[in-house]
Amino acid sequence: MSSDVEKAPATGHDSPFERIRRTNDAGAEYWSSRDFANVLGYSDYRNFEQVVAKGRLACFNSGHRVEDHFVDITEMIEIGKGGQRPVKTILLSRYACYLIVQNADPSKEIVALGQTYFAVQTRRQELSDQAPEDERRLLLREEMKMHNVRLAGTARSAGVVEPRDYAIFQDHGYRGLYGGLGARDIHRRKGLGKGQQILDHMGSTELAANLFRATQTEEKLRRDSVRGKDRANLVHHQVGAKVRTTIQELGGTMPENLPPAESIRKLEAKKRRQPGALKPSPK
Questions:
Q1: Is the pLDDT of residue 153 over 80?
Q2: Which residues, other chains included, contact 190 with Cβ-Cβ below 8 Å and sequence gap of 6+?
Q3: How far apart are the C-alpha atoms of 19 and 12, rounded to whole Å?
């Protein structure tokens, strides 16, 4: 391998890893394992396949779908005098490349450069992907606040008046949606500390499920003219259980198994600090 490749910068458009990056018709980026092996200095592709195998295992152990990051294909290569022969190639995602360089020969200078390049670029991608999730969480949390107020008002009309009764009413909804787990159980399962609210630590998927539970319960209480605390509790539990069944039928992750997210309060504070954000009016 030529020295100019090995001494190329690890980041930016001049990186050797950036130069071999490809994009498909949909605009998605990927790397060819053949190109990648060449840049990393593996003259014998069979040795590189052992490194790829370690990367696959690391991908599996991290909980990612291996087939989303390592795609096996067969392509034709030139063998001289106009001839071609089929070879096995793997199309690699940026994350797959990151895992591969973490398992490659660390004595190679280009491997160290690759580790820096893909660590930086993968983190940038994570931050880019996280932004829409943060926006969804902020939007859904505000929707949840609004609909919880409406749900409380409708529940009050049904006979759920005292704060203790409303807490029991809410617990019935959680137990339906979370497979029997009440608010305290969920709080404990998520590893939340004292004073931390469950809703403030839900990701967008979990928030959406709870929003659906709240809106449909409010509608059903109103539509069926439900009266009495016990009847209201039953309706809330039934709606929560129905939402849970729908998640199961769609092959989704049960809400109790979703990881807790960063406090929504931190996201709100971060957004207020952004340029152009509305500042609270002086009192």
A1: yes
A2: 198, 201, 259, 260
A3: 10
